[in-house]
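Structure in, sequence out. Go:
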């Protein structure tokens, strides 16, 4: 009697496929990255990220209300800082009236329940385009973590819910956690970019914020001395476990699709929620292929996000969040 077991029985109709489906995407899964600029009425499309924009604060307010009405509940803020305000130590990052601090307040005023997370790293504020302070041709670790802790306090004072350090300095989660506790911000959370690889997939993001490392003598040309080598797997587990011990509430793996082996491995190792960042280059690749008519945009988008969730992500930072939610039943 061949065969008793036919796996195809569970695939015969859409109804049975729905009934046995293991992974679902919902609006609750998403963290929406938003790019903020100075000005009024500004909504500039980012050249390498079609249909994604830099927004001035008035448009940020509108965007956040729209996101909330669509069922999205969390945003991740990034700012584009004018060159005139950049220096090696990212001094502008600590300005209580800086663009990020005003952006946090704008979102919280417009939509108090929207969860606000902020990128914490020096690169958009750095005249050298690095996540840390440059000295003697290197990125100075401990000088940087001190500034990141102050930056986190400044964001907490403006009302942020979670800070998201994306810099990969050693010990920064502990410095930030201790500083927040000392200042009484016991409920301000930390989503750590724990396993962040030195990836070429961040190119369009650096266009969006004009934050790429500069080409100058005595300034490292890339971020390989702090972001992780993409050949490595064990290092990702170690980085993530250390961040949890130092006080991270949520850990993140970045980029997404090319790193799902790491996501699964970390899912098997740790108990805290895991975020995955489907980064700008992943967005750009699909947009470009779809523009050429080479890939079905919506189908590939859903398949990739499903794969990220199936691998073990609890939270997905994605530029596709709105596109996805519009397609959900
Ligand atoms: C800043 C930061 C980067 C991204 C998130 N935070 C760029 C970088 O590290 O160079 C990349 C996000 C994306 O590509 O979508 N430290």
């Amino acid at each position: 009697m061949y065969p008793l077991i036919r796996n195809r029985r569970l695939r015969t109709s859409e109804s049975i496929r729905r009934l046995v489906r293991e992974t679902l995407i919902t609006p609750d899964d998403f963290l929406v990255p938003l790019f903020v600029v100075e000005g009024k009425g500004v909504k500039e499309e980012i050249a390498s990220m079609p249909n994604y924009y830099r927004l001035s604060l008035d448009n940020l307010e509108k965007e956040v209300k729209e996101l909330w009405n669509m069922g999205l509940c969390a945003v991740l803020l990034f700012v584009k800082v004018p060159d005139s305000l950049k220096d090696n130590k990212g001094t502008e990052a600590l300005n209580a009236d800086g663009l990020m601090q005003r952006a946090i307040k704008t979102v919280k005023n417009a939509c108090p329940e929207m969860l606000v997370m902020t990128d914490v790293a020096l690169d958009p504020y750095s005249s050298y385009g690095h996540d840390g302070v440059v000295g003697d041709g290197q990125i100075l670790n401990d000088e940087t973590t001190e500034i990141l802790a102050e930056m986190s306090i400044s964001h907490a004072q403006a009302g942020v819910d979670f800070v998201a350090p994306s810099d990969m300095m050693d010990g920064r989660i502990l410095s930030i956690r201790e500083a927040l506790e000392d200042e009484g911000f016991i409920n301000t959370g930390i989503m750590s970019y724990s396993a962040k690889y030195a990836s070429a997939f961040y190119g369009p993001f650096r266009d969006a914020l004009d934050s790429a490392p500069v080409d100058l003598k005595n300034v490292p040309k890339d971020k390989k001395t702090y972001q992780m080598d993409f050949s490595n797997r064990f290092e990702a587990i170690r980085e993530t476990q250390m961040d949890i011990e130092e006080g991270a509430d949520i850990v993140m793996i970045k980029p997404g699709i090319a790193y799902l082996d790491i996501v699964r491995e970390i899912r098997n190792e740790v108990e805290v929620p895991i975020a995955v960042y489907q980064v700008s280059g992943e967005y750009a690749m699909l947009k470009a292929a779809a523009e050429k008519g080479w890939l079905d945009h919506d189908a590939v988008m859903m398949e990739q996000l499903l794969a990220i969730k199936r691998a073990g992500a609890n939270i997905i930072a994605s530029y596709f969040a709105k596109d996805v939610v519009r397609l959900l039943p």
